[in-house]
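Comment thread on ticket #2218

A.B. wrote:
> Attaching the input chain for the structure job we discussed in standup.
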Amino acid sequence: MRLESLTSDRISDFVRRNLLLVAEILLCIVIYIGNRYGYQRDQVMAERLRRELVDLEYQTLNTTSDVSAKSKPSYIEKIVTTNGSGLVIATEPAYDLGE
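C.D. wrote:
> Ran it. Output below, let me know if you need it in another format.
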């Protein structure tokens, strides 16, 4: 019984003397875990944004390709002649630059 009492007194005395140190260690552990969680969350967000950026770049490339194909003079001529809108394609330049 005396050994248990002596051991428990020594442990409680040690904890009392080093309470600030134990509190600092626990605080450091909590801060470390919080920072680690925040870092991982930011990394996941960055990776998701990178994938979204690549998807948007491909969409932009596809849209640009479609627009340039639809704005070619041959495509416009085909639409004008197919729809029969009464428009006539000019065979002469709009301005005579020679005079």
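A.B. wrote:
> Thanks. Noting for the ticket: The chain has a mean pLDDT of 84.
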